[in-house]
Every structure is written in C-alpha cells, then in structure tokens.
Amino acid sequence: xxxxxxxxxxxxxxxxxxxxxxxxxxxxxxxxxxxxxxxxxxxxxxxxxxxxxxxxxxxxxxxxxxxxxxxxxxxxxxxxxxxxxxxxxxxxxxxxxxxxxxxxxxxxxxxxxxxxxxxxxxxxxxxxxxxxxxxx
Length: 136
Ligand SMILES: [Zn+2]
Description:
Number of domains: 1
Structural class: mainly beta
Radius of gyration: 15 Å
Largest sheet: 5 strands, antiparallel
Bound molecules: zinc ion
Oligomer: single chain
Strand order of the largest sheet: 6-5-4-7-8
Low-confidence stretches: none
Number of helices: 1
Distance between the termini: 35 Å
Order of helices and strands: HEEEEEEEE
Helix content: under 10%
Mean pLDDT: 93
C-alpha cells in the first residue's frame, strides 16, 4: 500500500479563504487594506506594513516561471518516492506575488525560466485542492 499523500496542515483562520477558493478553482491573493501590498502564501499579517487588515483578490490564474528546480530524490516523505522526478517552481503572478508550486503536464526538463503557465487545481482530499501550474 502506498503511503498517504501529505496534505496542507494549515487551516488557520487567516488562510481558510485561500483554501476554500482553491477548492472552488479560484486562486486568491491576499491584499492589504492599509497599504495595498499583495502577498502569497497567506499570512496573518501584511509583510509590508504589519497590518492585520487583509482582504482577497482573485488572481487571473496565469503567470511565468521565475525559478525552478527538478527534484530527483524523495527525502522528506515516502509519498514523494513515486512522484520523482518533479518540478518545484516559483511562479510570478501578474498581480504581483510569487508562489512556490509545481509545474505539471510537461516533462520536467521542458520547464524554463520565463515560461508562461496557468493554474490548474488538483483535488487531493475532501475540500482540499492544490494550485499547480501547467504550460499555457
Ligand atoms: Zn500593508
């Protein structure tokens, strides 16, 4: 039997909307009501000014690969042993923030800096979907 897939363990109040949006196929970015800064991943406070007044903006769902690496050896969790090789990438959104994610639906060696990508959501458990990206 294969090991259980590791799931996001944070269901904190400050990121509940992010995960609910992802489950609905929407990529949400935090936006500070005080200074306008935008951020991902979700945090309890604004990285720019420290305000706790954070709202949500729905991202278009496109971006570009800013940086990437290919994971060839699973070390952290046994579930990943069947996943290698896979790509971990930082994707920059036109809305401003970048997020760490995975690029799917293409060979790992095809991923390059500046590659246009779009979000796709993979449902991994009841009510939990992961925002991944694929070439566009
Ligand atoms: Zn702020």
